[in-house]
Design a protein that fits this description.
65% of the residues lie in helices and 5% in strands. It is mainly alpha-helical and 299 residues long. The chain has one domain. Strands 1-2 form a two-stranded antiparallel sheet.
Amino acid sequence: MTLALGVALSMSTAVAQESASFHERPEGKLHFASRYPRFRVSEIITTSVAAATTGAFILVPPRTGSSSRNPFDEAFRGAFRLSSPGQRMTAANVSDVLVAALWLYEAVVDPFVVAWGVHGQSATGAQMFLIDVEVQTITAALQGVVAAIVGRERPLSRDCDDPAETLGRESGACTGNDRHRSFFSGHTSQAFAAAGTQCMHHLHLPLYGSLTPFVPCAASFAVAAMAGGLRIMADRHYMSDVLTGATIGTLVGVLVPWLLHYRHRAPRDEQDSGELSARNPLQMFVVPTGLGAAIVGVY
């Protein structure tokens, strides 16, 4: 409850500051508030509840006893699992760095360095940051709830009783709550959620000027895919864990910004972009997901 109130208070302050600066800059393609709905009170509540849920399910022990092995996962584990504990630890650490880099780029570089610092659009930067936080907390809450209910053992838990391995019976992977949080992959879902949200920002806001949105979209999804693959190589997750995490993360990262903000373009913005729409009424983009790809249309 304290966590939820803290998030609500900090986000309310950010919304108030953004509203006060609404008239500081001229309207343009990067002025979020003149083109799309701003962050709502209902979204503050949703984000706060999601943050509280995430915190609660970190503490709640997951259900135990589910190994859920199948030929599909076993085939990919045998093909991609690194041979030594040291190599697997390195892969896990690199995946941590990649996910953190995606989040920092999404939540710091684009909204504050590019939108605010380069373009002088502090209001747009604040809105982007709030949407980023909303997407990440919703994704984390979904992962926490599902992982606790399913209680699937991580593949590396098989090494807990193997004297040839250095994992050790007393390690957190063998004795802690983390042992049964394999499904679905939190690293992968967070990475793809960040990539999806970043992609939506670039599809609707010309943060990089005339550069096609495909470049930052493709780069962010490529990094997310690398992070997910490293989770398999590190023996932290099965392939089905990673595919599910990629799919859910992409759906949340794309749908939340679009449904709540970017699909509601302001009428006056429609008039400004009428000539472009007449030439190219619908732009289609292919966005990768865990189970293949999705087509996103921008009109």
